[in-house]
Amino acid sequence: MKLKEKLKEKIETERERVNRLLKEHGDVKVGDITIAQVIGGMRGLKVLVTDISYLDPFEGIRYRGYTVDEVLQKLPKPKGAEMPYDEAQFYLLMTGDIPTEQEVQEIIDLFKEKRKVPNYVYKVLDSMPTQARPDVMLAVAVDTMQQESVFAKAYAENKITKQNAWEYMLEDVLNLLPKIPMIAAYIYRLKYKNNNQIPENPDLDFGGNFAYMMGIDKPYDDFSRLYFILLSDHESGNVSAHTTHLVASAWADAYYSLAAGINGLSGPLHGGATQEALKWFQELLKKLNKIPTKEELEQFCWDTLNSGQVIPGYGHAVLRKTDPRFVAQLEFGKKHLPDDKLFQLVSLLYEVAPDVLTKHGKAKNPWPNCDNITGTIQAHYGVDQYEFYPVLFDISRSMGVLSNITWDRALGYPIERPKSVTLKMLESLVQKDTTAKVWF
Ligand code: NMX
Ligand code: MLT
User: Fold this and answer.
1) Among 45, 238, 371, 395, which residue has the most ligand 2 atoms within 8 Å of its CB, making it the best to mutate?
2) Tens-digit pLDDT profile for residues 216-239
3) Got the DSSP string for 238-287?
4) Is cis: bond before 219, omega within 30 of 0?
5) Catalytic residue among 316, 323, 394, 408, which?
6) Which residues line ligand 2 (CB under 6 A)?
7) Tell me: the pLDDT tens digits for 104-132?
8) Does the reported pTM lie above 0.90?
9) How far apart are the first and last CA of the chain?
10) Best substitution site from 279, 310, 311, 371 to test ligand 1's pocket, by max atoms within 8 Å of Cβ?
């Protein structure tokens, strides 16, 4: 397989870089840690390393050095499509190179060959409680397939070394990733379309086939491709990426690690915000029974803040400007659904919310993130079952986190195990009391 050969070469070089840094410069300081950072969710602490993407607070995300616009412009596209292949984005994340048409075709063919989901997975999904959340079902499906792990099997047979571990991880990743959109579409139709399933279309790519199996017409295929590219990676510290990395760092296989990442993505402050945003817009429309004026929208923002809630899809732990992933979706919406009332509301909120949040004075970033807009576009194409939105995010994020854990293993990154301290220890630091012996 050409992808594996390419990675082999690159891994050799990258291993040398890591070893040189460790051997020759291991004691160079990266930064200091304050009590505020220790108590405050490690914000701003540079304690993770990845070359797959980097998030600049003002510019936004770069995937392997490329901005959102560059990726959308440079990656190969299906004939007649507006958006690039997700397979091309996966290739870029994994290798750092923009694939040629031939290289992307190899991934498309490989994914098609690997995407058939074992029957037992469908049986497990069919037997889950009807109230089970779609992302719970996806995590269960991924965990259920753990028995397929070639890494786990080889480990049990004592075949794994630090040198070859990544090859088994890569095999698991290539077996697992193409199945994720298949399982997601199955869950959607099981839960919301009377289990009236649509078989895959062997002619279609990752995003195109997902749209087809969802039963939604064009340009939903292009929106799917776009969305899966945009959310694929956001450097390493976000909850889903960090969770996946953490679990994999103890040499769990790709199945265990991705299922953990899917669970990590669910919270309303992370991937669950997509769902919360649409809910928020719907509650607003229900309350006012009409499209609000700017003043009414401003008041609704204040009502939300004054009741102690967050405005979903606004703010960010790293970003300090409008998320370029929000902008890319906004552009798509302006082109394809400019008259959609809910979509117009997103644009109106963009005019109102930053000012309100600035006046409120709490959020360090008053600008929208990717999650504010997704639901309105999904709803336009009929996917208004907002509980499903974390699953869409999961499909996309799988590409990045699975690339990351392959590289983690290739570069021999060790088990993650930071040190914790007690509050008493922090207090004794402040009091400069080095004689204190009781830490609780
Ligand atoms: N609405 C109201 N208050 C906010 C918002 C917001 N959108 N964003 C931040 N704040 C508050 C935050 O709750 C905190 O309040 P307190 O001091 O009472 O604890 C204060 O502002 C300072 O928080 P920040 O340092 O600005 O944000 P932090 O880095 O802690 O958290 C988020 C980042 C993204 C969790 C936060 O901005 C938020 O809750 N946003 C709304 C939920 C959301 O959109 N999440 C999706 C993020 C992107 N994703 O895809 O995961
Ligand atoms: C993400 O894409 O993971 C979110 O923007 C959250 C983050 O980066 O912390």
Assistant:
1) 238
2) 999 999 999 999 999 999 999 999
3) SHHHHHHHHHHHTT--HHHHHHHHHHHHTSTTTTTHHHHHHHHHHHHHHH
4) yes
5) 316
6) 231, 234, 238, 270, 317-318, 369
7) 999 999 999 999 999 999 999 999 999 99
8) yes
9) 56
10) 310
